[in-house]
């Protein structure tokens, strides 16, 4: 079975789509997929579906969801053994349920594995390998995590953690590619990222460095001004001191701004002027 949660929910068995249409069944499948091969307690599943105080009918209704989900999964198997295979795939454990799939059959875990390798390569100073691995990891995303799944408190926490991992992978990937001198090729991507995340200081630092190295100092400084205005108006905060120092370095044409592109230790652009 293959399951995708990095974007719209996707699931297939033997190449046949088996995505449930009912909202709460989709929640159950998504939460089980986030714990492949592990028992998920019924209490956790009920909390996801109904919050901390489930209705009196929760037990019976939940059993109905499991039954219907197994029927949906069975549709992906040929022959009369389909229902039995579905019961083995979604099996009952002590106090919970287990979706018996491998981690790498779920795109979120394939992403995390590739991202970890990319981060390790970045730390080792291998920017080429870091770029390749992190781009492979990011290519697994088809949109926001669980974008078409109704989420309760449990799934929201998982989705937020995945989005944070995606952002870190994006920052590291761009930083590695800046070290490889690909600043011009990154400009369009960075413009889109800073527009989507108007108060994200790390992305703005990367975009500022890319514009600066592409010979567009005024665009880099304008990015800083817009970020500062947004932070002050929305949060009542000034940019972080290291970002202020990066801005000052651009005003004074500090030669250190170009050293990372030519080599040296793998210092992220945002940390270049850390105290």
What is this structure, in a nutshell?
This protein is mainly alpha-helical and 275 residues long. The chain has helices at 23-33, 42-50, 58-74, 82-89, 107-123, 127-138, 153-179, 183-196, 201-213, 217-235, 241-251, 256-262, and strands at residues 2-4, 10-13, 16-17, 39-41, 90-93, 96-99.
Descriptive key words:
275 residues, mainly alpha
Can you characterise this structure?
A three-stranded antiparallel β-sheet has the order 1-2-3, with no helix packed on it. The chain is built from twelve helices and six strands. Helices cover 60% and strands 7% of the residues. The termini are far apart. α8 packs antiparallel against α9 (201-213). By secondary structure, the chain is mainly alpha-helical.
Topology:
Elements (H helix, E strand, L loop, with lengths): L1 E3 L5 E4 L2 E2 L5 H11 L5 E3 H9 L7 H17 L7 H8 E4 L2 E4 L7 H17 L3 H12 L14 H27 L3 H14 L4 H13 L3 H19 L5 H11 L4 H7 L13
Antiparallel strand pairs: 1-2, 2-3, 4-6, 5-6
| Ends apart, CA distance between termini | 49 Å
User: What Rg is obtained from the alpha carbons, in whole angstroms?
Assistant: 23 Å
> How would a textbook summarize the main sheet?
3 strands, antiparallel
Instruction: List how many beta strands DSSP finds.
Output: 6
| Structure classification | mainly alpha
Question: What's the arrangement of strands in the largest beta sheet?
Answer: 1-2-3
Share of residues in strands? 5-15%
Helix content: 55-70%
Secondary-structure element sequence? EEEHEHHHEEHHHHHHHH
Whole-number mean pLDDT: 92
Detail the poorly predicted runs. none
Number of helices: 12
Give the overall form: elongated
